[in-house]
TrEMBL record:
GO terms for cellular component: cAMP-dependent protein kinase complex; cytosol. It holds the Pfam family cNMP_binding. It comes from the Eukaryota. Residues 58-147 form the Cyclic nucleotide-binding domain. InterPro entries: cAMP-dep_PK_reg_su-like (IPR050503), cNMP-bd_CS (IPR018488), cNMP-bd_dom (IPR000595), cNMP-bd_dom_sf (IPR018490), RmlC-like_jellyroll (IPR014710). Residues 1-20 are annotated as: Disordered. This is Cyclic nucleotide-binding domain-containing protein. SMART domains: cNMP. GO terms for molecular function: cAMP binding; cAMP-dependent protein kinase inhibitor activity; protein kinase A catalytic subunit binding.
Length: 147
């Protein structure tokens, strides 16, 4: 009798288990070999990108081969002063690393765009929409010429 009193109560029924799924492959959805894009860069650009990306939590644990793949896939984009780089609410397709210039990040607050951050060379932006598969969290505009 004493032993029965010391036993924990039986587990409660938590309800139905959540489903688990994985991508299905068949004739309609073939697995294809991935060939990453490679855009030419100078050795200086490669070194600069490696330094910046190694400081980022998203890329710091990549091995050399994977880091080289990421850097090779990056391409330079030039933005003139006053041009919009990304727009709040849009789908995200790219991550940006600033080489030159000082773009500003703006958020809509009470219907008006307010500057929430000024970026500079070495800063990275645009990763949130890619990481969380969500719309862009802010608008980014070039104040001056940006690479």
């Amino acid at each position: 009798d004493d032993v029965a009193d010391d036993m924990p109560p039986p587990p409660q029924n938590r309800g139905q288990r959540a489903s688990v799924s994985a991508e299905a492959y068949g004739n309609w959805n073939q697995v294809k070999a991935f060939t990453p894009p490679v855009h030419p860069k100078t050795p200086e650009q490669v070194a600069k990108l490696a330094t910046i990306l190694n400081a980022s939590f998203m890329f710091s644990s990549l091995d050399k081969k994977d880091m080289d793949t990421v850097i090779g896939a990056m391409q330079q984009r030039d933005f003139e002063a006053s041009s919009r780089i990304i727009t709040e609410g849009d789908d995200g397709e790219h991550l940006y690393v600033i080489e030159e210039g000082s773009p500003v990040c703006k958020k809509k607050v009470d219907g008006e765009e307010k500057v929430v951050k000024t970026c500079g060379p070495g800063d990275v932006f645009g990763e949130l929409a890619l990481l969380y598969n969500c719309p862009r969290a802010a608008t980014v505009e070039a104040v001056d010429s940006c690479k």
